[in-house]
Amino acid sequence: MLLNIKNLHVSIGGKEILKGFNLGVNEGEIHAIMGPNGTGKSTWAAAVTGREGYEITEGEIWYKGQNIVGMPPEERANLGIFLSFQYPVEIPGVSMQNFMRTAVNAKREYQGLPPMSMIEFTKMMKQKQAMVEITEKLQNRYVNVGFSGGEKKKNEIFQMAMLEPELSILDETDSGLDIDALRIVANGVNQLHNEHNAFVVITHYQRLLDYIVPDFVHVMYDGRIVKSGDKKLALELEEKGYEWVKDLKL
Amino acid sequence: MQSYQFFLYFCKLNIRVFIMESNPKENIIEEVTNKDYEFGFVTDIETDFIPKGLNEDIIRLISKKKEEPDWLLDFRLKAFRHWQTLKMPTWAHLTIPPIDFQDIIYYAAPKQRKAKSLDEVDPELLATFDKLGISLDEQKKLSGVAVDAVMDSTSVKTTFQETLSKHGIIFMSFSEAVKQHPDLVKKYLGKVVPYTDNFFAALNSAVFSDGSFCYVPKGVRCPIELSTYFRINAANTGQFERTLIVADEGAYVSYMEGCTAPQRDENQLHAAIVEIISEKDAEVKYSTVQNWYPGDKDGKGGIYNFVTKRGICRGDNAKISWTQVETGSAITWKYPSCILKGDNTVAEFYSVAVTNNYQQADTGTKMIHIGKNSRSTIISKGISAGHSQNGYRGLVKVVPEATNCRNFSQCDSLLLGDQCGAHTWPYVECGNDSSILEHEATTSKISEDQLFYCNQRGIPTEKAIGLIVNGYAKDVLNKLPMEFAVEAQKLLSITLEGSVG
Fold first, then answer.
1. How many domains does chain B have?
2. Terminal alpha carbon distance of chain B
3. Which among A49, A92, A110 is the nearest to B456, CB-wise?
4. Number of domains forming the structure of chain A
5. Pick from A91, A103, A107: which is nearest to B471 by CB?
6. Is residue B467 part of a domain?
7. pTM for the full model?
8. With 80 as the cut, is the pLDDT of residue B27 above it?
9. Could you list the residue range(s) of the whole structural domain that residue A195 is in?
10. Tell me, what's the ipTM?
11. Is residue B461 part of a domain?
12. Which of A210, A211, A232, B207 could in theory staple to B106 by disulfide, Cβ–Cβ 3.0 to 4.6 A?
């Protein structure tokens, strides 16, 4: 199993947000986590990626056979965990080329590989850019500065393509996307998907799942998964709304 | 005859060293941070020095050792007499421990006389350069950069002399210029920064030991970058160099300066003067990466860098551009300024000042608009970390006659951690209503969001800070000559390592 989360409890500032979260993800699978606002979906993503301030009070996160609780975020990233941010961060003055090159080479360094040559890197960047249909020159633009909402999300998928992670978490990548951008983002994900990697897609809406078809759908409420099923569960949710979930919990 | 420990440091070699650093290595940050000052090996070279202290006899002695003409001795003595009437300024936002000016050696020099060719340079010295990976000879061949190296008080060797003289460009040590081109030196010395200017300018004018002199004749575009490297070497010495750059009508020159000093527990004084004269239609680009020893993590030791730098756009359409990257020194007191005397003149000031640990910096610029339609730009980026204090102090002054002037000032401060301070004191005096002066200022912190974003992409925090800080300083770094820019970028990252988290 690629990712196995056991009884995860996470607190922020002493307030418990995740209350016994369990999830297993195998290579090749696509999982969707759905649920109303404030149920801990983003907290879960932050805990798995190792963000500071998210205190794990109980439970384990097993990834590639090791418990990664306490591991610094960059090491998790270098082990192949990727987060597509809900709100991608702007870094003024840092070009995408410089940023990605630093990231790619950090991972290579972690793997004991020499830095990628500039020629090879430029080629790779061009190729991956095409995958998410970013036609304009990306390399000299500053990280997310002046990007439209759609561009920012496409840029996240582009970075995912560059770093070739085994576990990708997409945190509400669909929010604020128009239908064209949504299709492009989904296409990117589908192209990257293979039997060796897995995706966990966090979303409010069924809409994205028309494009990225999940093997499993989980409904989250009040800090844990309250129901799991297949794609049909997402449709059911769409139909019944999240009020229905609250009853499930009881 | 006495043997002194020498410390040599060339800015350029940073590039090489840092490339080595970027090889895959575990715990590289810790390694670099704990290493303190990278180039700490020493070379024994015979040194000629004079007794400690400052009085007229000492000044006469310095002048005599340098075989100076009477007019220069006279200049020194006048400056000294004036200096005695002055008190050290206290207006800067700096805490400066008392300095005993009688406890400083004002002249120390490698004993060997200035070499005519590389064959005559002290082999110890050359070996040191080689060890650093950069020989003057190699540098000369490879880089196309003319170098004047000033160690302690004298200039060791100026490369590229022949190429320059073909164009009529004079680029040599100050003392040599005094001998070979006394009329030029006399004509321009102290014209931009008179010895009466301030306490440290008076001190420098009295005791200055060497420095660089550059003259680009009418209509000549200097084909290569000129650069000088300054070092303080021997213990208890101060360094007081003068740089004088003159671009005659229609001339162009780009000049770079790098500095360093050995690690010592006691503080050392560096009080330099830089004067730039840009005549009609001429342009001077001055860039410096200042990396004097900043003291240790607890604020012990380090250089006091009290420097007066000023340029004058004397003729119409003249241009001067200052670019500085300040990472070193325990205390920095420095305001590279421009007098825009001619009409349609242009002056620029681009600065990145980084302070970490217990460093203090009070730095900025003055733009004095006298000519009509003159334009100035100020971009200042302060970065404070640790317990340091980092201040920008600037004056934009437009005299009533200087109509239609423009100034744009941008002063940004970036804070790392919550123990440091950033301060901004922009002064504006506008004497007419046809001029437009703009001022923008921001203060920001590196956000947790930015750091986590980088971390999540596999970039460790220390590296992420370097990336973000360099991005922040981009506007200024872009103004540096290529080879300096690379070095400055690395330097910024290194200086801030260990400052967060």
1. 1
2. 50
3. A49
4. 1
5. A91
6. yes
7. 0.78
8. no
9. 3-88+150-249
10. 0.96
11. yes
12. B207
